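Office hours follow-up: a student asked to see two folded examples consecutively, so here they are.
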Amino acid sequence: MKSFVFASFLFVFACTLASFQQNDLLKASMNRGKEIFAANCATCHMQNGEGIDGVYPPLAKSDYLMADKTRAIKQVLEGAIGTMIVNDVKYNGFMTGFNLNDQEVSDVLNYIMNSWGNTGEMVTPAEVKAVR
């Protein structure tokens, strides 16, 4: 019984430690992503991620963005064209893809998907590479 309790304690400790490490990795990625966002995305989507009604869709509290991580990765890499419905508003436009490496795509998406009311899973460079 004692070994079970000890093993359970070690498991909980390891999970807690892994969670703290994941949070630190996400925070670092988001800090880098904030700079990438400011340089590449804020002109259209605005510094606060709210976009411009009817012209550039919001990233803040965006149902479209948060619905599909793979699609989000593809759109950063390849851009987007055509109709999309974001938070019940129809947008029909064009977004260019960006020449960013896997880490940079991961960082900017971690920033966008965890800011302005969004809460998402961490995007890893390996996930970006798999989509690329």
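And the second, which I mentioned at the end of office hours:
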Amino acid sequence: MIKGIGIDITEIKRIQEMLQKHPQFVNKILTPAEQKQYEGLNGSRALEYLAGRWSLKESFSKAYGTGIGSEVSFQDIEVVDNQLGAPIVTKAPFAGRVHASVSHTAVNVITEILLEDKND
């Protein structure tokens, strides 16, 4: 049974501007495992990854029904890429299954999170 669905679209340029203004932005958004993947990327691919993680976490918070804030922080959610590049949610404050999808253009990142009851 579907428990929640969330989508988000983020402008990559907006994330780039945040990163330029606040170099600690990466530490706020990414968990240590995500940072490890991020550090292996360069240029536009690194920026797409960071924007994608921001957007995935926003999508999760919408599906979960809380938004990012006091109940759920960016560090409470972890999404790493598997060997094929698919986003896998490895940490979240939800006991069921979490499905993630991310896509991007040169300008935007769009993500979707689907929360599914673990008994289904």
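Two things to take away from it. The chain has four helices and five strands. The radius of gyration is 14 Å.
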